[in-house]
Amino acid sequence: MFNAIYLTQEAGLTHAQIRLLDESELPAGDVRVRVDYSTLNYKDGLAITGKAPVVRQFPMIPGIDCCGVVAETSHPDWRVGDAVILNGWGVGERHWGGLAQQARFSGDWLVPLPPGLNSRQAMAIGTAGYTAMLCVLALEGHGLQPGEGEILVTGAGGGVGGIAIALLARKGYRVIASTGRPAERAYLAALGAAEVIDRVELSGPGKPLMKERWVGVVDTVGSHTLANACASTRYNGAVAACGLAQGMDFPATVAPFILRGVTLYGIDSVMVPKERRLRAWNRLALELDPALLEAMTREIPLSQAIAAATELLAGQVRGRLVVNVNA
Q1: pLDDT greater than 90 at residue 223
Q2: Among 281, 226, 236, 241, which residue's Cα sits nearest to residue 261?
């Protein structure tokens, strides 16, 4: 028997509760994982609260991330006792996820816990940090180098934004953090932000082209913010878009892309091939300062995760929430 957050739907309303389940109820898969830690991401908040149709079938155990130890396996790549990470692949949406003490997955979805990280640190990073690294890899792949100009990070107070700041600053980029929480200036500066701007500078309707400022952008917000970020990107710059906290719309023109040669990279974290996953996780283990990671992390027990999902969507959570599913 194991505890899990269990989602059901009735008359279009999502109901979340902590429920005791039997191992036999787990979905099909060739690897069973004894979960140590999970985490709360924005998508998990949407699933638990029902604020958006993230969950594709009910009942569902949410949680797009988890880290733990292989307890049972028939997959050739894994042995009992292996420490593994799960991100994405529709888990927590179509397949029971990681906000539980036990989980069963396809072994093809798992990656090994990199040397230098423990399971708690891996979930402090979670999909948020993994997505941040995918954004950094996109900007690097575009050819952007430290010293060429500023990098804007929007939604800087969230998990993706905070880890993106820490990664980029450590590599020598001058990072501009955009946030709607002025009280977080000292926190963002400690992560490595050289300057903090109010999100209102970017969140309203703007012009097709604006004054060139940053050479690169990590955007977690979407909508007008993304449009204005693109309109302010310098010639031949790059924008990595990975979030939609403000909205899924993109009220922009093609002007930045045609007249300034700006490139917009869409960053998906769910279906990324294993080779890129391994590259991202190995880079995170090497390049993310453990002290900074701890500074942006708060641990909660599984019993508090349902309430915390509402706080997360309300913008009341700084950085990362790690869920100790066994506490």
Answers
A1: yes
A2: 236
